[in-house]
């Protein structure tokens, strides 16, 4: 969906000894079929190539972005390596439905964020075929709607760029096994072909957290004197289990009490939490050069996919029973809580668990045309894009029972009942024009504008009402950008830019936007009042300097102001909530990076500072919590400080490296105001208590030995000192005191809000072999 065209990337030649710390020369532009020198770009560009994607340096693509790219952070909310919740400058590219997305991901010019919830299926990307990863910041309108905080641009290989047989085999902790292999061939008259496969299987480091996936990618094409074309096919399947958060501390009237996290970080709160994905993507591209200064680029794609989930949860009636009857029962069987309406004799019949399942079927198609022209000092581009997506989504619920290991099994006598669903389509029409004007040899002005019209049609269904009348929402806006770069005589390049872009609400957001009818995220869809589209305006100032070969430094200062940000607000039930516009938010900060190379040594340093705050007043709902928003209140889950250091030494066939990742604490969701419970009217607010995550620092080691010019061995140890840390925190109710299900009919329950944590990955080992024949 939302095809924005291909990205022209000029890479440095890659030798076997190229390391993760190498500086990569990039020229990139979101305009199809054109290439602009990096020195002319009015924004910071970060990139990596095939060497950095090796398992000797990263586990997968999302892990590479967290390790190497400045300004990128991750919340390991699901506990699965391929279901990460990534942020860049505070904007998300997440695998979780319901997260407020703001980063676009492009594969060979096709935007691969899913049509339904704009999520990124990291497990469906052909990592063994990717040759370059480029990250660009800001709300650049040329990347199409929904690009609020930046874009990740992925380029794949062909038989021309990656001939021969290449592969990598790795094994590691958690019974992890992975194979990546590719074969490319270049024939006569410009013909070429390429195929790549990936297979992955692991038990996971947490209980009941196994996962497996496979992808197949193929490309065929021909390069001619004036015309190039290619046709590629991607197919992927996965079965992943991510087991979410664990209760760390429960806050009761008697004081804080330890939760399940303290006893066993590998444990699971409830299970299963299974996601099955399947995707097929067909892409066709054509480039025609009319002359040395004029070119036409065309792109078309078609994608089909399905996503099925199974989630074991606490039964809603039982959760309400625990809360309302927590004080237990008297000797005569009467409830001690006035609001308790469940007799002791009836409590045993309440279903303690529920299995919630979802089915999603989706398809998307798109076309893009762009004409580029070098006209004197102007590099001109103009084009049109059209994208459409169709989604069918259904949710079912079945009563069940919680087992002693906190897994949920279905009641064989209970029916699998339809709960809610949606059938919807999204059509997006875009037109853009851009110009890079060379004012003089050292100064370039870049200007662009893109107009978008987005139409969303929804038909909601519920068990009570059946299909509801079709609803239509139309969003249209023209978004501009302007940037300037200037190279000083010292070699220092300074730049500045301002850009605006928009994101229209997705089907899940429009289908769950009524506070009077909250939904089960990401499932129940109950009502669809209109939401406003998000408008994001980004301001950037930066400088880059490359005083010596293989050495460079860059710094960026940015501010992004969002209007009508869309957030999921949890109603007074931890499984229900709704989406709403929340006024204004601001993401501002500093990125700085330094790369040095001298002899056998390479050094890398990256630092980012992020100040993410609400800029308007209102109320933020998070479970039982009602949080008063005010300008300056920090947004949850985003660290202020993020430091990445690396050093590598290479001598002949041996390479040794060490990396450090240090991250400051994060505000807990539901604790933004420093409280864990609501303050009753007329009562004095208790002393502030900040229960966010603590900061942490992780040290990683790697080694690589080139046996021959074509075969090498590698090993890696992550989190060498086995540091215990958490990447996300939230306030919720814990119904498993001491790891066992609360049963008020047997004994009173000490209720109270609890801090839930996403446990970070402990020490992990990995070894592998890489070949290029």
Automatic annotation (TrEMBL):
One of its GO terms (molecular function) is siderophore uptake transmembrane transporter activity. It is found in: Cell outer membrane. Residues 39-151 form the TonB-dependent receptor plug domain. PROSITE patterns: TONB_DEPENDENT_REC_3. One of its GO terms (biological process) is siderophore transmembrane transport. Residues 243-720 form the TonB-dependent receptor-like beta-barrel domain. InterPro entries: Beta-barrel_TonB, Beta-barrel_TonB_sf, Plug_dom, Plug_dom_sf, TonB-dep_rcpt-like. It comes from the Bacteria. One of its GO terms (cellular component) is cell outer membrane. It is a multi-pass membrane protein. Gene3D superfamilies: TonB-dependent receptor, beta-barrel domain, TonB-dependent receptor, plug domain. Belongs to the TonB-dependent receptor family. This is TonB-dependent receptor.
């Amino acid at each position: 969906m939302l095809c924005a065209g291909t990205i022209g990337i000029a890479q440095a030649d890659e030798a076997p000894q190229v390391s993760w710390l190498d500086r990569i020369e990039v020229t990139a532009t979101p305009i199809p079929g054109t290439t602009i020198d990096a020195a002319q770009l009015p924004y910071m560009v970060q990139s990596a190539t095939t060497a950095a994607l090796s398992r000797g340096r990263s586990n997968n693509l999302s892990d590479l972005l967290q390790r190497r790219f400045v300004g990128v952070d991750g919340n390991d909310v699901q506990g699965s390596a391929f279901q990460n919740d990534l942020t860049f400058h505070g904007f998300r590219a997440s695998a979780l439905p319901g997260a407020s997305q703001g980063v676009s991901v492009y594969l060979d010019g096709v935007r691969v964020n899913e049509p339904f919830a704009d999520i990124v299926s990291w497990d469906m990307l052909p990592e063994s075929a990717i040759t370059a990863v480029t990250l660009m910041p800001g709300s650049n309108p040329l990347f199409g709607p929904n690009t609020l905080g930046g874009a990740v641009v992925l380029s794949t290989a062909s038989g021309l760029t990656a001939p021969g047989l290449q592969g990598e085999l790795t094994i590691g902790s958690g019974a992890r096994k992975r194979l990546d292999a590719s074969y490319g061939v270049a024939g006569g008259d410009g013909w070429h072909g390429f195929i790549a496969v990936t297979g992955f299987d692991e038990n996971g480091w947490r209980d009941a957290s196994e996962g497996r996936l496979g992808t197949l990618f193929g490309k065929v094409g021909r390069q001619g004197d004036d015309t190039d074309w290619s046709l590629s096919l991607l197919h992927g399947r996965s079965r992943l289990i991510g087991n979410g958060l664990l209760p760390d501390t429960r806050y009761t009237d008697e004081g804080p009490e330890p939760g399940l996290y303290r006893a066993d970080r590998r444990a699971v709160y409830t299970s299963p939490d299974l996601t099955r994905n399947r995707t097929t993507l067909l892409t066709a591209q054509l480039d025609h050069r009319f002359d040395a200064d004029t070119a036409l680029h065309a792109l078309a794609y078609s994608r089909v996919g399905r996503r099925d989930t199974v989630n074991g949860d606490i039964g809603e009636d039982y959760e309400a029973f625990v809360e309302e009857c927590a004080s237990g029962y008297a000797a005569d069987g009467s409830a001690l809580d006035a609001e308790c309406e469940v007799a002791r004799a009836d409590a045993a019949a309440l279903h303690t668990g529920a299995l919630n399942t979802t089915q999603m079927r989706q398809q998307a198609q798109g076309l893009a045309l762009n004409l580029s022209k070098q006209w004197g000092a102007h590099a001109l581009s103009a084009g049109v894009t059209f994208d459409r997506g169709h989604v069918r989504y259904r949710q079912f619920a079945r009563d069940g029972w919680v087992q002693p290991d906190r897994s949920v099994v279905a009641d064989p006598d209970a029916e699998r009942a339809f709960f809610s669903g949606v059938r919807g389509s999204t059509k997006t029409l875009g037109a853009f024009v851009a110009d890079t004007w060379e004012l003089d040899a050292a100064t370039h002005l870049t200007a662009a504008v893109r107009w978008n019209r987005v139409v969303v049609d929804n038909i909601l269904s519920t068990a009570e009402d059946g299909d509801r009348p079709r609803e239509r929402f139309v969003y249209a806006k023209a978004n501009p950008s302007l940037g300037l770069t200037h190279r000083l005589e010292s070699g220092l390049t300074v730049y500045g830019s301002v850009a605006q872009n928009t994101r229209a609400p997705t089907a899940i957001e429009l289908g769950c936007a009524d506070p009077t009818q909250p939904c089960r995220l990401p499932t129940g869809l109950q009502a669809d009042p209109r939401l406003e589209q998000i408008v994001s305006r980004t301001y950037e100032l930066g400088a880059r300097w490359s005083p010596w070969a293989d050495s460079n430094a860059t710094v960026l200062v940015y501010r992004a102001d969002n209007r009508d940000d869309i957030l999921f607000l949890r109603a007074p039930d931890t499984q229900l909530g709704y989406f709403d516009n929340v006024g204004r938010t601001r993401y501002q900060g500093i990125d700085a990076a330094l790369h040095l190379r001298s002899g056998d040594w390479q050094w890398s340093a990256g630092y980012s500072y992020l100040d993410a705050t609400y800029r308007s007043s209102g109320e933020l709902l998070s479970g039982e919590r009602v949080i008063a928003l005010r300008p300056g209140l920090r947004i949850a889950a985003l660290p202020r400080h993020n430091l990445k250091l690396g050093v590598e030494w290479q001598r002949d066939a041996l390479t040794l490296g060490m990396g450090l990742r240090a991250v400051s604490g994060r505000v807990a969701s539901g604790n933004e105001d420093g409280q864990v419970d609501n303050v009753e009217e007329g009562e004095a607010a208790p002393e502030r208590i900040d229960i966010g995550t603590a900061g942490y620092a992780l040290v990683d080691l790697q080694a690589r030995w080139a046996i021959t010019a074509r075969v090498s061995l590698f090993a890696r140890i992550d989190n060498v000192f086995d540091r215990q840390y958490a990447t996300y925190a939230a306030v919720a109710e814990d119904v498993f005191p001491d790891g066992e299900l609360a049963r008020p009919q047997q004994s009173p329950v000490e209720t109270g809000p609890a801090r839930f944590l996403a446990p970070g990955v402990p020490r992990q080992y990995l070894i592998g072999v890489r070949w290029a024949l």
